[in-house]
Amino acid sequence: MSTPQFISINKTLVPYDDARVHVLSPTVKYGALVFEGLRAYWNAEQEQLYVIKLQEHFERFHNSVKAMRFDAKYSTEELTGIVLDLLRANEVRSDVHLRVAAYVEGSGLYDSTGPISLMCAAYGRGSGPLAAKTVSAGVVSWRRISDAATPPRLKVAANYHNARLGSLEAKINGYDEAIFLTSQGRVAEGAGSCLAIVRDGRLITPSKTEGILESVTRQAVLDIARDLGVATEERPVDRSELYFAEEAFFCGTGVEIAPVTSIDKLPVGDGQIGEVTRNIWDRYEASARGVGGHGPDWRTPVYPR
Ligand code: PMP
């Protein structure tokens, strides 16, 4: 990660080293923080930077802030302004990942609802070719958190304790990525991404009620698949279906599209990147960079034309 010059805190641009929180704040003590991870893609020919799917990310952000009962309400316009001001102040002209977070400051307990601060940071994170994104995956013994205890559809820092345990287990066992099952034993998602498989040419991904984050990229993938004439299914997925899949990939803002070439040490299909995965990635990248694919509703340009 390259360090940006400025980070936005409560709408003020502060130097990187001054972006701090107190060690006794509820955000540090209990992970009381709602966040979004976004990406912006640089188009050198157009000399334009595009933040993708801003509206969708901020809708989820509003929902998480509401469910966490934070003493704050942000409008999408306000948040968009903060993101654009930050990218312009840092004069970003390359692919970046962004983090927007609302978090509980002060020295309260786990049920404190304020005071809330809002931060936004952008840091370099390139996007390589699909072949460089392939991963091995293993089903981990930790189960995905459930809606009855700590809802996975809230994008809250504390939820990532579960991701951490699974991800560490996967790595210790020699896999690049973890696949979590729900407590009912069905496929949920990865540690920081959703999972899709292809069976009989159909794109299948666990439904939104199967212990997943309601991923912006997952929805984009479903939209692209339908455009490409690939039938889609959102439904419960059994673990053994993973072994029957012709293709599999993780999807998320950070990982983008990551082809899974083996699961539990069994090859997925022929162990190569599949055609559906490749076609979806090509259209995703074109849409993100503004060179075809989906229209302007995907992208918010940062610089005046
Ligand atoms: N699931 C989890 C647990 C995640 O952390 C992420 C990354 N935010 C995703 C799925 C993918 O979500 P999105 O496509 O909105 O980035």
UniProtKB/TrEMBL annotation:
Q: What is the primary gene name for this protein? A: ilvE
The pathway entry for this protein reads as:
Amino-acid biosynthesis; L-isoleucine biosynthesis; L-isoleucine from 2-oxobutanoate: step 4/4; Amino-acid biosynthesis; L-valine biosynthesis; L-valine from pyruvate: step 4/4; Amino-acid biosynthesis; L-leucine biosynthesis; L-leucine from 3-methyl-2-oxobutanoate: step 4/4
Its BP terms in the Gene Ontology are:
amino acid biosynthetic process; branched-chain amino acid biosynthetic process
- GO-annotated molecular function: branched-chain-amino-acid transaminase activity
- Family of this protein: Belongs to the class-IV pyridoxal-phosphate-dependent aminotransferase family.
Q: What is the lineage of its organism?
A: Bacteria, Pseudomonadati, Pseudomonadota, Alphaproteobacteria, Geminicoccales
Which EC number(s) does UniProt give?
A: 2.6.1.42
- Report the Gene3D superfamilies cross-referenced here: 3.30.470.10, D-amino Acid Aminotransferase, subunit A, domain 2
Q: Which InterPro entries match?
A: Aminotrans_IV, Aminotransferase-like, B_amino_transI, BCAT-like_C, BCAT-like_N, Class-IV_PLP-Dep_Aminotrnsfr
Protein name, as recorded: Branched-chain-amino-acid aminotransferase
Work out whether the entry's keyword set contains Ion transport.
no
Pfam families for the chain: Aminotran_4 (PF01063)
Q: Which UniProt keywords apply?
A: Amino-acid biosynthesis, Aminotransferase, Branched-chain amino acid biosynthesis, Pyridoxal phosphate, Transferase
Q: Which domain of life is it from?
A: Bacteria
Outline what the protein does: Acts on leucine, isoleucine and valine.
- What reactions does this protein catalyze? L-leucine + 2-oxoglutarate = 4-methyl-2-oxopentanoate + L-glutamate; L-valine + 2-oxoglutarate = 3-methyl-2-oxobutanoate + L-glutamate; L-isoleucine + 2-oxoglutarate = (S)-3-methyl-2-oxopentanoate + L-glutamate
